[in-house]
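cache lookup: miss for this entity combination. No prior model stored, computing from scratch. Input as submitted by user K.M.:
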Amino acid sequence: MSDTGHDTPHVPGPSLWPIAFAIGVACLLLGLVISWIVAAVGAAIAVVAGFLWARDVTHDVRGEVPSIEPETRTVGDSASTGAIAAVPVDRPLPAYTRSRFLEASTLGVGAAIGAIVTLPVVGFMVLPAFTDVEEDEADLGPIENFPESEYVIASYLSNPSAGEVTRRTAFVRNNGQTDAGEPSFTILYSRCVHLGCPVQPNGPIDEEARQELENGVELRPVLAQSFGCPCHGGLYDAEGNRQAGPPVRSMDRYTFSIRNGRLVLGELYAVGNVSGTGASAQISRYPWSVPGTHVDGVEAWLYPIVPSQVTG
Ligand code: FES
């Protein structure tokens, strides 16, 4: 008599995990373009679905581990003593069909490709958190050094202990006071927001009035009505708004504080657009981003994510 339990071929039941895995990978890749949050959700879906898929695929193999002691059955030895003897009985090893093998191979290759695609990107995301260099706050000296409504080119060391390599330039204009009586300064970062070339003020520099302060700060008054980038012809107006050329947003700005009558630079931030001028300007402010990155409008969604980098 045949053992019907082993004659029936094993047909794996339909599983939705491969579909969920594919959806997760698609979300992950889409998220790398439009949003880190979507990428994180996609990665979570892919990992969970992949794990459950792998568990399904290997279920039969994992579920029938051969026992250490072989199974035995008792049979009568009627030819001799009539005693009952135990004999080992062979059990078939769990079947690992070709379809199972192909399914597991597909899962493994998919996981390897996913890792190759995502690990470099994740590295770019995570690594800067461990490599970014802390920059000191820059004290640009007494606010009397900044005449009202005039730009001053301020050159300073963002990390004095690291030396001249950390020298930065900002264009500083004292706007007087806001309607609320607060001091107002426009402080533009000289780095072009196209590809990062040094932007120059369009106007004569008063080298006679150049000042060197004790902490490596240099101040040079300039008659600037606009700013230009020599690399690809980028042009910005006196508020830092893009006027022409390839830059994708307005010039970056610094926050500032006044401490004991001295102007201290704060953090950099990105600017979408500036309407109005001076102390009454309305500034579309965004978290700082590397040159070439859109910060507002449809482009901010469509433009690929640029790996983070230090502000240098
Ligand atoms: S880097 Fe300034 S216009 Fe290209």
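stored under new cache key. Confidence is low (pLDDT under 50) at residues 1-6, 307-312.
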